[in-house]
Write a structure and sequence with these properties.
0% strand; membrane; transit peptide; 70 residues; transmembrane
């Protein structure tokens, strides 16, 4: 750990000042219409099902492959 810290402080590995001084500003326009609670809940539920659905299927069927090897 100390070797790594010494290497960072040495002249061979100078810190890049540009990485610390760069700033990115994200700007955008406001929405044309207000997003309601129903739309927010629908989108969050859809994304959750889209991500957790396949993961649940894989986990539920992973034990089947171990049983078939016998």
């Amino acid at each position: 750990m100390f070797v790594f810290a010494r290497a960072l402080r040495s002249k061979r590995f100078p810190l890049r000042q540009q990485a610390f001084t760069q700033r990115f500003y994200i700007t955008s326009k406001s929405a044309k219409s207000n997003v309601g609670v129903v739309e927010s809940v629908f989108v969050m539920a859809f994304i959750s099902i889209a991500i957790l659905g396949p993961a649940g299927w894989i986990l539920s069927n992973s034990s089947d492959s171990h049983r078939k090897k016998k």
